[in-house]
Amino acid sequence: MDRYIDILKASGADAWEVFSTEVKNWEFYYIGHRLDQNRAKNVEHVRLCVYKLSEDGFMGMASAEIPPTETDANIRRTVDDLVYQAGLVKNKPYRLNVPKPFEPVKAREFDLREESDRFIKAMDSIHETATEYLNSYELFVSAVKRRLVNSEGVDVTENYLSSMIDLVVNARKDDHEIELYRLYHLGGCDREQLRLDIEELMRFGRDRLIAKPTPAIGSYPVVFSTDAALSIYSYFLANLEVSMVLRRMSSFELGKPVTVNTDGDKVTLKALRELPNSPSNFSCDPEGAPIRDAVLIDSGVPQQYVGGRMFSQYLGLDDTFIVSNWSVSGGSTPAEGLRSGKFLEIVEFSDFQVDGLTGDIFGEIRLGYFHDGEGNVTPVSGGSISGNMKDNLAHMRMSRETRRYASAEIPKVTRLENITVSGVDAC
Length: 427
Known about the structure:
- It is a single chain.
- By secondary structure, this protein is α+β, with helices and mostly antiparallel strands.
- The chain contains nine helices and 20 strands.
- 19% of the residues lie in helices and 41% in strands.
- The mean pLDDT is 95.
- It has two domains: 2-207, PmbA/TldD fold; 213-427, no CATH class.
- It has a six-stranded antiparallel beta sheet with strand order 3-2-1-4-5-6.
- The chain has helices at residues 2-9, 72-86, 112-124, 191-208, 229-238, 242-246, 309-314, 335-338, 389-392; strands spanning 15-31, 34-53, 59-66, 132-150, 155-173, 176-186, 212-213, 218-224, 269-272, 294-298, 301-302, 325-328, 342-354, 360-372, 377-381, 384-388, 397-398, 402-405, 408-411, 414-422.
């Protein structure tokens, strides 16, 4: 780190940042429950970022990754080139983060052998059948140390655990067999929740095999109970981003409700420093700003904006940060209370998106459950849904119970009333 700093100080850059990330990683590749291969890695990444003020009062930025084994002479040449590139960029000037007091997230040493063993035992505990079973999975468990140093005096080091499971489950009926895929991003291992998630996926595979074509039912209530709902709530977080606000792409204003005359649940969204088993429990954001627990939307009323340093300064804000963990409080109704009457519950999408700018909702249905309001439930597949968040905000309902996904915790069940369901032909 010292040699990077010395080179940057002598480069003529007006400001600079050094990002160093050391990753100790254990990887396992399983066919079913049989270990096919495994390996360990120890990798360091270093990225240098320079800022340069031009004679006409603008400031530019340029960055590059530096191999840790690079010679000082080559680093100097790279930094000189970055300073030149930065001088060509025409941004309004702003100041990098300065040191501020913060409460460190409780750090601990990670034993990769123990953490890996927890995950492997969790995978071994999954209940399989002759027709629904684990095809294969890849497990990546990483102990990460990241450090940020900048020219304003910020020097922050974070240690955290980051894990990933990439898996395929199979389901078959007679001579027909399908595969379903999941990618889980985790911190530590929550054995019981992981088991429940994968067994749920197997059930989806079983029902997918007997699914009927989705009927063209037009406007219909739709229930979301899997990770697709993250996109719904990310819409709220996106409209609090300073980059969206500055460019007048956000419709949210502080102190003003996001919708009026509502008969649904009002969203309360919080930023969190820590969330159990999250891979994003940080004291400071990637730019060195302290992260704190904060209510961003309170009962449907935005309270504060969040985001990076550049756009925050352009807006005159000095106390913002980039959100790592976040949560949405549960609503007023039990989960099963939202599964009543006529509705379509969609649990698998080929693709699902909610546009942060327009609020447009669109997704292709891989598996859903059609409830006709008379007690009949039919697994369906095919077709698509469309709608807009702005048309649904006033009537959106959220379950009292919540569910955690990686760095977010949201209501377990979300119900939108005004969604168009486009079906498929019976053939």
